Amino acid sequence: MPRESNPDIQIPVISVFVRLPEISVEDSEKLLAIPIENELRSIEGVKELKALATDGGAHVILEFGTEYSNKEVLDNVRSKLSNIKSKLPAEAESPVISEVNLSLFPILNVGLVGHLPERALTNIARKLKKGIESLPNVLKVEVAGVRKETIEVIIEPTY
């Protein structure tokens, strides 16, 4: 069996977002996130389910095993959401269901460690960032963990 450097492994991940303008986080949890989470949890094959209540809506992420097809998963999610629509507030917008393909988001994390001053590691990270950004097919490079340097100047005028 040939090995690929970037295999396309389909893991069905579905994102559901329900928007309700001007709802608080607490109300969003009670009125949106928990009812949706309880309904979607009953879908066969759910490997992991995460619900997040926010100002203005609720977001639920479902992950299924590789043995489930994306079409089957989407159909099950749509069916469950149609069952619960009447239990959600009337002002809530229709749920937005999105399919997430993890193979479309290749990510590489690089950690820099060494017996160098922090400023030297930061300079190396910035040079690496420029080099990686220049590679074809690289969309974005972020450097994390860098402190923002500030200078405080106190002027005491003498007359």
Summarize the entry for a quick read.
The chain has helices at residues 25-41, 70-84, 118-133, and strands at 13-19, 46-54, 57-64, 96-100. The chain has two domains: 13-102, Multidrug efflux transporter AcrB pore domain (Alpha-Beta Plaits, 2-Layer Sandwich); 106-158, no CATH class. 30% of the residues lie in helices and 18% in strands.
How is this structure best described in words?
- Helices cover 30% and strands 18% of the residues.
- The chain has 159 residues and is α+β, with helices and mostly antiparallel strands.
- The chain folds into two domains: 13-102, Multidrug efflux transporter AcrB pore domain (Alpha-Beta Plaits), CATH 3.30.70.1430; 106-158, no CATH class.
- A hairpin with a 2-residue loop joins strand 2 (46-54) and strand 3 (57-64).
- Helix 1 (25-41) packs across helix 2 (70-84).
- It has three helices and four strands.
- A four-stranded antiparallel β-sheet has the order 2-3-1-4.
- The longest helix has 17 residues, at 25-41.
- Pfam families: ACR_tran (PF00873).
- GO terms for molecular function: xenobiotic transmembrane transporter activity.
- InterPro entries: AcrB_DN_DC_subdom, Acrflvin-R.
